[in-house]
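Write out the 3D structure for:
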Amino acid sequence: MANEPETLPPAARRIQDLLGEIGHDGKVRLFDASTRTAADAAAAIGCEVAQIAKSLVFRAMQSDAPVLVIASGINRVDETKIAAALGEKLGKADANFVRERSGFAIGGVAPIGHREPPIVFIDRDLLAFEEIWAAAGTPQAVFPLHPADLENMTGGRVIDIK
């Protein structure tokens, strides 16, 4: 069930508004249970963990740029592959870096609407699904989309991330 925009928390409402602005008909869904982890989100939605598009923020070590890796919920990111695709070393991003650069708290990072546009890499495994689910700005909010929409929305590069 989709929530009315006025009942959404501010960050989730921002994502819903952005989806409307870009012409996407996906509706943000708010759950009582946490959708912070891929397993939690899949349980709340009723889908496979692999259909969760988890947004992970890293830090490019030389340029200090935010790097967003959108991975299938079952995959672990091979940071050496991301660094090779990026062309520079990759580091962990702490909670402050994530919030300052993206505008979201860890556990609710959306693939769109970042305060500072990140460099984006998309897990090739997400392309196997007709529908995937992404965080919508809070640890209780998600929205559905097609993998091709994710590519169009983010301008991300599809690579093998594992």
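The beta strands are 29-30, 52-60, 66-72, 90-92, 119-123, 132-135, 141-145, 157-159.
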